[in-house]
Amino acid sequence: MDLPASSKSEMAYQFLLKQLIEAKIPPEAPLRIPALGKESGLGVTPMREALRRLESERFVVMENNRGFRAAAVTQAELMDLEGCRLVIETALLREAIAHGDDAWEAAILSSHHLLAKATEPAETSDLDELWVWSDRHRGFHRALLAASRSQWLNLFYAQISNHLDRHFFSMFTGDNRDKFLGSPELIAHSRAALGIAHHTKLMEAVLARDEEQAVRLLEEHAGFTRRFFDRVEDQA
C-alpha cells in the first residue's frame, strides 16, 4: 500500500533533518534531489517539498542556478543561537522548577544516569559514541524542562537546539575531528564544558528547587560551550 504524499514528505523531512543535524551532510554541501530521493527511497517530489521546508527553517539555502545547499556553519550564528537558547532555556527552567512533580524529578535522575554512562566527546574518536552522547545530552536538558508549560517557548527551544546540534556535530566531524583529538587544550576544555560533573551540579540544584543556583549553572554551562567553540575556531 502506497503512503500518502503528506507522509512521504514528512519522512523525507525527518530523513534530511537527521542527516543535516548530524553533519552526515556537511555544511555547504550541495543537495542533489534525484540522488537524495533514491537514497531515501522516497522519490523526488517528497524530497523537494522537504528541502523547501528546511529552507524556511534555515537548514538549507536555495541558490539561483545552483540548487539547494546545506547552510553554512558560522561562529556568528553559533553565538546568536547560544544567546537565544540561554534566554529561552532559562525561562523554561524557572517554569519547570515551579511546576515539576515527583515524576519529573524521577525522569531527570534517569536521564542523568543515561548521560553519565555515555562516553564523553573528549574520550572517544568513535562517531557512533558521539551520536549517543549527543542524544543523551539533549535528553537530559529536555528532562530538566519537561515540567514547563509554555508551548511556544518549547517549540522555539526545539528549533534552536536542532541548529545548535548541527553546529556541534560540524565541530566534531571531518577535519575538525582530528584537530580536536590532537589538541590537549581543546580536550581539557571539552571535559569542563561538556563533562558529567557540571551536569551533575545542575541536576542537584534543580532537584533542590534552588532556582537561582540552577540558572547560574545553566548560564555557566552555556558560557563553557561558547568558549570551547571559540577555541575550535581559533585553531581553524
From TrEMBL:
<dbReference type="Pfam" id="PF07729">
    <property type="entry name" value="FCD"/>
</dbReference>
<keyword id="KW-0238">DNA-binding</keyword>
<dbReference type="InterPro" id="IPR008920">
    <property type="entry name" value="TF_FadR/GntR_C"/>
</dbReference>
<dbReference type="InterPro" id="IPR000524">
    <property type="entry name" value="Tscrpt_reg_HTH_GntR"/>
</dbReference>
<feature type="domain" description="GntR C-terminal">
    <location>
        <begin position="80"/>
        <end position="224"/>
    </location>
</feature>
<keyword id="KW-0804">Transcription</keyword>
<dbReference type="InterPro" id="IPR011711">
    <property type="entry name" value="GntR_C"/>
</dbReference>
<protein>
    <submittedName>
        <fullName>FCD domain-containing protein</fullName>
    </submittedName>
</protein>
<keyword id="KW-0614">Plasmid</keyword>
<dbReference type="Pfam" id="PF00392">
    <property type="entry name" value="GntR"/>
</dbReference>
<dbReference type="InterPro" id="IPR036390">
    <property type="entry name" value="WH_DNA-bd_sf"/>
</dbReference>
<dbReference type="InterPro" id="IPR036388">
    <property type="entry name" value="WH-like_DNA-bd_sf"/>
</dbReference>
<keyword id="KW-0805">Transcription regulation</keyword>
